[in-house]
Amino acid sequence: MTDSDFHPGERIEALESAIDELREAIARSRRLMTAGGAAAVAGPLLLVALILGLVAFTPALTLVALALLIGGIVLMGSSKSSTEQLERALALAQTQRDAAIDSLGLVADERPPIDAPGRVLTWRSRTERP
């Protein structure tokens, strides 16, 4: 089924769902970027602690510190790249949703409903007569 096979309302719903999923993915990616940054800081701190003798030197701890440093940098960089891609996809989906809403041809109708006092903002089609 292509995008043109959707009724405009269904297309808007599908785009809203995709936008929500993209926002969740961006949040996950940002959390991974933060974790990568923390690991990239923890690795050098552990190396400094090993060099200063604050922590007993062992080859295993040295490898852990180096792994934290390298892994943190890699995780932070890849998450940043993923976040940027997801943000571009989100902007595109929002633009498509806005275009789909605009294609419905809705305009503001400030006529109050018959049974309600005061002015209430409702929507009507551009082809509908006031």
Automatic annotation (TrEMBL):
<feature type="transmembrane region" description="Helical">
    <location>
        <begin position="32"/>
        <end position="54"/>
    </location>
</feature>
<feature type="transmembrane region" description="Helical">
    <location>
        <begin position="60"/>
        <end position="78"/>
    </location>
</feature>
<protein>
    <submittedName>
        <fullName>Uncharacterized protein</fullName>
    </submittedName>
</protein>
<keyword id="KW-0812">Transmembrane</keyword>
<keyword id="KW-0472">Membrane</keyword>
<keyword id="KW-1133">Transmembrane helix</keyword>
